[in-house]
Amino acid sequence: MELNQNEEKLKAYRERATELVKQMTLEEKVAQTQNQSPAIERLGIKAYNWWNEALHGVARAGTATVFPQAIGMAATFDENLMEKVGDAVSTEARAKFNMQQAGNDTDIYKGLTFWAPNVNIFRDPRWGRGQETLGEDPYLSGRMGLRYVEGLQGHDEKYLKTAACVKHVAVHSGPEEVRHAFDVHVSEQDLRETYLPAFEVCVKEAKVEAVMGAYNRIDGVPCCGNRRLLIDILRDEWGFKGHVVSDCGALEDFHLRHCVTATPMDSAAMAMNNGCDLNCGKTFGFLVQAARAGLVDESRIDEAVINLFMARMKLGVFDQKEDSPFDKIPFSVVDSKEMQALNEEVARRSVVLLKNENQTLPLNLSKIKTIGVIGPNANNRRALVGNYEGTASRYITVLEGIQDYVGDRARVLYSEGGHLYKDRTTGLAQANDRAAEVRQVCADSDVVIAVMGLDASVEGEQGDAGNEYGSGDKQNLNLPGVQQELLEIAKQSGKPVILIVLSGGAHAITWADQHLDAILQGWYPGARGGKAIAQILFGDVSPEGKLPVTFYRTTEELPPFEDYAMTGRTYRYMEQEALYPFGYGLAYTTFAYSDTQLLTGNALTENGVEIQTTVKNVGMMDSVETVQVYVHAEHSKMPHGQLKHIVKLPLKAGEEQTITMHLPIDAFMLYNENGKKELCNGHYNIYIGGQQPDKRSAQLTGHTVEKLGIDV
Q1: What is the pLDDT of residues 504-539, one digit of tens each?
Q2: How far apart are CA 324 and CA 155, in angstroms?
Q3: Which residues are catalytic?
């Protein structure tokens, strides 16, 4: 019944859009296929700019709640929380849109079509835009992306709250420096097993309104003009009903960098003919010439404009003001106390505790008189927010969070320590010019908190991050500049040293793991991240984050950056031992599993399997366990299991709970070399616990996971 209602709704929108398009000239239609779409006053159509961003909050359009960067939200492993954030973002988006419309402001970043989330796979830790993604695992990326889309788009029977866009299809994850000309060659198995699943689930289950093409080519064909991707797979195979948008400037790449077409007119025709409806850029302006030259059928342009008008109709912007419930959302919801509280909750839940030797954390403030805070990210606002960010009304850095928390109960000493990535703070200084100050701060302190890492000025998108540092990509996995030297000075002081890393991905912090007392990965924790981190440091809450990416030991062990084959990459395919594995993260308590069993027997049923386990918080502090279920086929060439289910389980100290989990038959299917999903006969192991079923995780936590087996 629900499907029929949806089909009827789409049919009505299509008929209405078709009638509008029939009244338009070719020039008017072509103008509507570009992100800056002009008004058509005689038809009552207002100007509209399609380009807007909401990766982790409404971006680039004034004051908004700046949530933790996407990779940090992925570390919560909590899809319910992800939808809650998406709903909060879309609430602010509507409030700001209502305000902007009242002021007749239709500028860039002022629409309701948001080009988020980024569900590309974070396959290589050097990729600067990996911070925008939801990690290295297709299942996690798919579930988190799906729920963020649902939060953005809402569940109203008639209208979309906002229109989400999953990007960038497909096989796109650096290097940034060559993305406009790069030709990716990938096996059909890797394409289906790794690069497409998150897009597929967002299209099929979340009914995402838009899909953005990538800059690169796949096997010689640019993604934004790739018929196999945009028509055969997206529309014919997955049943996509929305619109396709190019990445910004991607169509120019066809003739200028990929050199697969000769002119802008040819590029426009190639993209339009192969499934692209909207051009972020101006190349589609040549569609008038292309249509008159017979390179594009005008009916295909009609189809694209109909798709675009349908999107605006789904958002209700062609209807009377009072028709949509979202038109009533007031501007006062933006940056409200409720939004700030949610932001702090997400930040707390995203932090990952990587090391905690001798229970260094949480800190006991009654036993501390002086706290030393050092490092270039300790008081760096840019290290809170990552890229594609909005503007917060207040930023709370880690230093400020600690200062606010301790008040007059302890003295807080501070040294910037050095520049983020250069060897001196100013051009006139000598190298490591803050070393003496760091040494004194450490000597005078009872405990040292070192805040290191990167920020979006050096890690991010090409042209956005400074090209001074690898076009946005990491040159290597080491902490840059003098950060390592600062850590060694802190260690030499003999004081307990706690490292907090603020960055968008994994670093090779092998020395820190061997020598420091505690390590937290804070990601880019949002505008109020410093307050959240202070609450974790002093034990108001237990950390619960889990790594959505693998932390490697060295840069040298990585496969070549430009090799898109998955062999040797990510937890599913790597052969070597990780520094910190995917799915790993400590808490201030421990959890015990017992009575784990298959309720459906040792054979796979048509409906999959039912698993039951009992989890107990055996420590002294309330916390949340992230129950992870992995499946590994013994006959598979894949060396490790794959994540297939997650349960977030809050447990008070001493509390235990029995849970039942369902794994569908799809969780046991694998893609063959031809990219076909199949269920093979053989033995399958199912692993249940708070971590990945690998030796390194067991070594780090002191615990193993539960193991069950079934036969097919």
Answers
A1: 999 999 999 999 999 999 999 999 999 999 999 999
A2: 13
A3: 247, 459
